[in-house]
Automatic annotation (TrEMBL):
Ranges where the PA domain occurs: 398-487
Annotated protein name in UniProt: Subtilisin-like protease SBT5.6
Protein's organism: Arabis alpina (Alpine rock-cress)
InterPro entries the record matches: PA_domain (IPR003137), Peptidase_S8/S53_dom (IPR000209), Peptidase_S8/S53_dom_sf (IPR036852), Peptidase_S8_Ser-AS (IPR023828), Peptidase_S8_subtilisin-rel (IPR015500), Peptidases_S8_3 (IPR034197), S8pro/Inhibitor_I9 (IPR010259), S8pro/Inhibitor_I9_sf (IPR037045)
GO terms classed as biological process: proteolysis
Length: 788
């Protein structure tokens, strides 16, 4: 063979290697559009980049999933790692994001009443416990905000169940003229499903299909349309903006009352970007693909929404530059759209926070003053109250057994007590109460297994890893959920009594539990793993056992064998707390349409509750006072946020300047990073976080006077310094003579090493707060500092 005849083979090897490389979806991000191209020209421009790395024009076209054309400049396409690397090296490309599915965090009748909003117009209907006039204040606030009328809330989630009474448009006026969106049709969803309440709906599935293959209705148990098969999207949408519905309750009549969203007259636009995974139970959660979410945010911005609510996140820290939600939210904030997102459900472990970008309002979860109290009675007289929303009842005491003692042959020892499918032996379980332990498998699934084996009741025991937070679920047998300490007592009773018996009392709804609120154990915690100079979460809102509208295609337990239909259902998670804040944002936007996103966040944060209804510090799940990494600035108070006195404002350009520190350069063609960039803690934020302090740090802040008609005011500084540190302000008095006037000040934080002996360890955070107070307002901010 001639040497020259080998040359084609040499050239063919890298080509074959490239073909062999597994293609994956990447997002190629260019930043902000310059506004000099039409939509068609933008797409052609994106095609030209693909053609530069692809072998043919046909390959370039077929690889493209999305061309982001409105605010976000970029595209999503199938690329090999080599092709992605070549594009990433181009000067005009800001980042190339390797797409990955995100499981949304699974992250009402009582919650809005609990935070001081009550919608009825007749004062004779006010709750009898309205001692402090809280609900009268709430009604005035709702009236002033016109119940959110004129504000459009865009919601990214699993879609919507349009037939729910929560989305009725009865009595509503015409759709706002600013609306530019569409009502996208699809399977079981047509244009008539949109109305003057649900004004828009879209769905995004291209990224999902690249991961899971062509959409299959049977395998996915989903609708190729904006319709919600899951319940999560319907629940979050109705929590934020649902209409008032009288006589709403969960199955069994629990939490009976009037259900309403925070802004019941605000308009809803749904962006379905989360889908059921194929061939799995819905209880395992939906998948939200990065490129689909970014396309949804790009459309929401162009459609004219005022608020974007995102109950989606990840437990893995993602740098801003590689975080589709963070990038999309920054483009939204430029257009003064407020973005709220869930903090995540990976608590109480520290450093588990999701959505940490400072231009996002990050929401943690707290509790209500409502519980569902049942009871457990053992044959030895031991009695304990338990939480339960199970409608099934026991008529009398029944024999009590431990699951590990009644399992079928062949069940692994480590799973023997967990009541997994087909694990229990019917002849040993029939007619009995079974003690099952949490761990592998779903809580609901354990009750289904007890029922299958003929059991009449279940005691669902937390393991030490679950802690003391029990979850009431709509089980299929009478159920009592108990803590690890109670589990130990039950096991001891079973071991020592020859004929152990138990009786499970049915649950009932109980209000005005104290203390309330407290931070839930599942709510993700700071510090931020992306930038510890930004204190997150920002705020907490109710997220435990929230009652809201539900999908007609899903039972309350989200397990396929559950054929029950529930118009309203309980769900817990920061996914539920996020739309509470989104509803409050809609009301604030209606009252203060010119306020920036940062001003609204500031108003919510600086007026938040830091004490519970017993006037004591809000507790964490361990019974100790919650710190700002769990609580943020506190439990939100919408009525107070309407008149915060002062706000910490921040412009889009301020975020771009901050971005120079964290790799977000070149996003806007009109902005260039300066040679000297201020430290991250100088971003004008309503809280302060200083990691690894050694000596003294001076933090700069600016406040704007927005006092409610009080053009002349004087604010005095006070602080409760973190243990081992001092916190002082320069100046310590701020005087204003007009609305809109700005004042700068410095916060000087000093490590007092002589006071730190055996008190503060290196890297360990201490917490405090500072506030500015006049005759009418207290503008309070949390402080977190760690020693270097």
């Amino acid at each position: 063979m001639k040497l020259t005849s080998l040359f084609p083979l040499f050239f063919l090897v890298p080509f074959l290697a490239s073909c062999a490389e597994k293609k994956q979806v990447y997002i190629v991000y260019f930043g902000e559009h310059q506004g000099d191209k039409s939509l068609q020209e933008i797409e052609e421009h994106h095609h030209s980049y693909l053609q530069s790395v692809k072998e043919s024009e046909e390959d370039a076209k077929s690889s493209l999933l999305y061309s982001y054309k409105h605010s976000i400049n970029g595209f999503a396409a199938e690329l090999t790692p080599d092709e992605a690397s070549r594009l990433e090296k181009l000067e005009e490309v800001i980042s190339v994001i390797k797409s990955h599915p995100r499981k949304y965090e699974a992250h009402t009748t009582r919650s809005w009443e609990f935070v001081g909003l009550e919608e009825e117009e007749n004062d004779s209907d006010l709750p009898k416990h309205d001692v402090d006039g809280r609900f009268r204040v709430g009604r005035k606030f709702l009236k002033k905000a016109k119940h959110g009328d004129g504000i459009i809330v865009g919601l990214l989630d699993s879609g919507v169940w349009p037939e729910s009474k929560s989305f009725s448009d009865k009595g509503m006026g015409p759709i706002p003229k600013s609306w530019k969106g569409i009502c996208q049709t699809g399977v079981a969803f047509n244009s008539s499903h949109c109305n003057r309440k649900l004004i828009g709906a879209r769905y995004y599935v291209k990224g999902y299909e690249r991961y899971y293959g062509s959409f299959n209705v049977t395998a996915n148990k989903d609708f190729l349309s904006p319709r919600d098969p899951d319940g999560h999207g319907t629940h979050t949408a109705s929590t934020a903006v649902g209409r008032r519905v009288n006589g709403a309750s969960a199955l069994g009549g629990f939490a009976m009352g009037s259900a309403s969203g925070g802004a019941p007259l605000a308009r809803l636009a749904v962006y379905k970007a989360c889908w059921a995974k194929p061939n799995v139970e819905k209880i395992d959660g939906n998948m939200c693909i990065e490129e689909d979410m970014l396309a949804a945010i790009d459309d929401a911005i162009a459609d004219g929404v005022h608020v974007i609510s995102i109950s989606i996140g990840t437990t893995d820290p993602v740098p801003y530059l590689l975080d589709g939600i963070a990038i999309g939210a920054l483009h939204a904030v430029k257009r003064n759209i407020v973005v709220a997102a869930s903090a995540g459900n990976a608590g109480p472990k520290p450093g588990t926070l999701s959505n940490p970008a400072p231009w996002i309002i990050t929401v943690g979860a707290s509790t209500l003053d409502r519980s569902f109290v049942g009871g457990l009675v053992l044959g030895n007289g031991y009695t304990i109250k338990t939480e339960s929303i199970t409608a099934f009842k026991m008529d009398k005491f029944a024999p009590l057994v431990y699951a590990a003692n009644v399992v079928a042959p062949g069940i692994a020892l480590n799973n023997s007590a967990q009541c997994l499918p087909n694990s229990l032996k019917p002849e040993l379980v029939s007619g009995k109460v079974v003690l099952c332990l949490r761990g592998a498998g779903s809580r609901i699934g354990k009750g289904i297994e007890v029922k299958r084996a003929g059991g009449v009741g279940m005691i669902l025991g937390n393991s030490p890893a679950n802690g003391n937070e029990t979850m009431p679920d709509s089980h299929f047998v009478a159920t009592a959920a108990v803590t690890p300490t109670v589990v130990d007592k039950i096991l001891q009773y079973i071991k020592t009594d020859k004929k152990p018996i138990a009786f499970i009392k049915p649950g009932e709804t109980v209000y005005k539990n104290k203390p309330a609120p407290f931070v839930t154990g599942f709510s993700s915690r700071g510090p931020s793993m992306i930038d510890p100079n930004i204190l997150k979460p920002d705020i907490t809102a109710p997220g435990l056992n929230i009652l809201a509208a539900w999908s007609g295609a899903d039972g309350p337990s989200k397990i396929s064998v559950d054929q029950r239909v529930a118009e309203y259902n309980f769900v817990s998670g920061t996914s539920m707390s996020c739309p509470h804040v989104s509803g409050a944002i809609a009301l604030l936007k209606a009252i203060h349409p010119k306020w920036s996103s940062a001003a609204i966040r500031s108003a919510l944060m600086t007026t938040a509750w830091m004490t519970n209804d017993e006037k004591k510090p809000i507790q964490d799940t361990n019974g100790l006072p919650a710190n700002p990494f769990a609580l943020g600035s506190g439990q939100f108070r919408p009525t107070k946020a309407a008149d915060p006195g002062l706000v910490y404002d921040a412009s889009y350009r301020a975020y771009l300047l901050y971005g120079c520190l964290v790799g977000l350069t070149k996003i806007d063609p009109t902005f260039k990073c300066p040679s000297k960039i201020p430290p991250g803690y100088n971003l004008n934020y309503p809280s302060i976080a200083i990691p690894n302090l050694n000596g003294t740090v001076t933090v700069k802040r600016t406040v704007t006077n927005v006092g409610n008609g009080n053009s002349t005011s004087t604010y005095l500084f006070s602080a409760q310094a973190p243990l081992g540190f001092s916190v002082k302000a320069k100046p310590s008095v701020l005087s204003f003579n007009r609305i809109g006037q700005k004042k700068r000040f410095k916060i000087v934080v000093t490590a007092q090493k002589e006071k730190m002996m055996n008190v503060t360890e290196k890297g360990h955070y201490q917490f405090g707060w500072f506030s500015w107070t006049d005759r009418y307002h207290v503008v309070k901010s949390p402080v977190a500092v760690s020693l270097a």
